[in-house]
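Record 1 of the preview.
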Amino acid sequence: MEPGLIIVILAVAVLAVLVVVLLLRGEQVMGRLRHLAEADHATGDRLNARLVEQDLALRKLLADRLDEVSKRVSDGIIKSTDRTTQSMTQIQKRLAVIDQAQKNISELSTQMVGLQDILANKQARGAFGEIQLNDLVSSVLPPSAYKFQATLSNGRRADCLLHAPNPPGSIVIDAKFPLESYNALQGAKDEAAKTAAGRAFAADVIKHINDIAERY
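->
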């Protein structure tokens, strides 16, 4: 065999061996790459599962916290509403009491004005005095101890006659009263006015007593 042919055959054999070696190494590399890819895929799946799990846990935590905050806010609103309702109820009750008091004051003022009108007229004042005298005497004495509008032996009529044993005997009560001088005494502003009004009132009372004594 010629030397040149031998060299060619050897070269082809070496080249074939190199190709086989390269193919084997390529298969190993591809196997490693596939293994790495599978490992990466598994790692990615695990990571993705953990991320999903953490996301669900975070969502649940946020939902629980939101429910807790909502409950606290709701409870606070309910309590505040209850307190407001109670306060409004108390205010309404107090306003009702104040309104009733104002009505009573208004009615009392009207009655006072009416009483002043009655007392301004002497005849009406006398009738009013007789009514008050009737109520006062009948509330403290038995019916046998008094008589209203009693006719005396001299023909005069007394507003009230008290039956008392001798002495002093029967006592005549007159319902009239010196109101003008009494009002002047009540309305006096200083000591001098009070002194003058007091003297005038005392004089009117004494005169009224003497008039009753002479009349009855």
